[in-house]
Design a protein that fits this description.
Arc Repressor Mutant, subunit A, 7-stranded mixed β-sheet, two-stranded antiparallel ribbon, LysR_subst-bd, transcription regulation, WH-like_DNA-bd_sf
């Protein structure tokens, strides 16, 4: 049994001798120096245990055994080329597709503009958007089921890379008939913490930001937990109770007077929205292009 795999380049030389009539001609076509070509053929002869070239002063030609191996070498080289073609096609397919996981606030209020601008710049890329909460986005990125994620969580798991892409602010909002709208002084942090609120589910960036901001205070149990900012906004509009939401999610309703923002003394709920991805540190391809684009866009 022959040990080890033959080098494809020496098989190419063997086929070249069959096609061009001599080793020197085959070496020239392959771009290999004649001495190196001779040594490569000798190593193959030692590996297969039989002479493959008839060496003459006028040049080297194939032995009958060399002719047989040249025939099979063609098949091996053809299969190798097909393998490389398939790999190239996979790279092109990968490069032409972009899967994005985005937390709900980002997906609802920023991603439509970002992806619209991206498609203008690169219309050939097929984009798949997955809408998650921030914890689920981290899971998608870690598992490799998306190319890049966008989150509003204040922390990023170890092992992932991230860059800031936008700024956001959480605000306390109530229905115009709520008693807090008649206050002359800002709400205290203690009052906010002790009030049952309509909140997002655990794992969302909005919920995590609020929990971190109020972690030193005794908290009331949530009035209601809902899975999206839109659902919470609808609840507040219906007078269910106060909520803490992204200013992006309530800007239209606050502007129209349907909701009121209540100021809270000494409570800072500014947050950074981030793009996150797996190593390597340098994000390339369409995902890298998208991140660079959104960092140039002002929210």
């Amino acid at each position: 049994m022959i040990s080890g795999w033959p080098d494809l380049s020496v098989l190419e030389l063997l086929v070249g001798v069959d096609d061009h009539g001599s080793l020197s001609a085959a070496a020239k076509v392959a771009g290999i120096a004649q001495p190196n070509a001779s040594r490569a053929i000798k190593r193959l002869e030692a590996q297969v245990g039989t002479p493959l070239l008839q060496r003459k002063t006028t040049g080297s030609t194939l032995t009958p055994e060399g002719t047989v191996l040249a025939h099979w070498s063609r098949r091996v080289l053809d299969d190798a080329r097909q393998l490389l073609d398939v790999a190239a096609g996979m790279r092109e397919k990968r490069a032409a597709e972009l899967t994005v996981s985005a937390s709900m606030t980002v997906a609802e209020h920023l991603m439509p503009t970002w992806l619209g601008l991206f498609r203008q710049a690169d219309p050939e890329v097929t984009i798949h958007l997955q809408v998650r909460n921030s914890t689920q986005v981290f899971d998608d990125v870690t598992a490799g089921s998306c190319d890049v994620g966008f989150v509003e969580s204040p922390t990023v798991p170890r092992g992932l890379h991230s860059v800031p892409v936008a700024q956001d602010r959480l605000v306390v909002v109530v229905h115009p008939s709520h008693p807090w709208t008649r206050r002359r002084r800002p709400l205290s942090v203690v009052e906010l913490a002790q009030t049952p609120l309509v909140v997002r589910e655990p794992g969302s960036g909005t919920r995590t930001t609020l929990d971190v901001a109020l972690h030193e205070y005794d908290r009331a149990a949530p009035l209601l937990e809902l899975g999206s900012a839109a659902a919470i906004r609808t609840s507040v509009l219906g007078g269910v109770g106060p909520a803490v939401l992204s200013s992006l999610a309530v800007s239209a309703q606050v502007g129209s007077g349907e909701l009121r923002v209540v100021e809270v003394e000494d409570l800072h709920l500014d947050r950074t929205l981030r793009a996150v991805w797996r190593p390597p540190r340098q994000l390339e391809g369409p995902a890298g292009d998208l991140v660079r684009l959104v960092r140039r866009v002002r929210v």
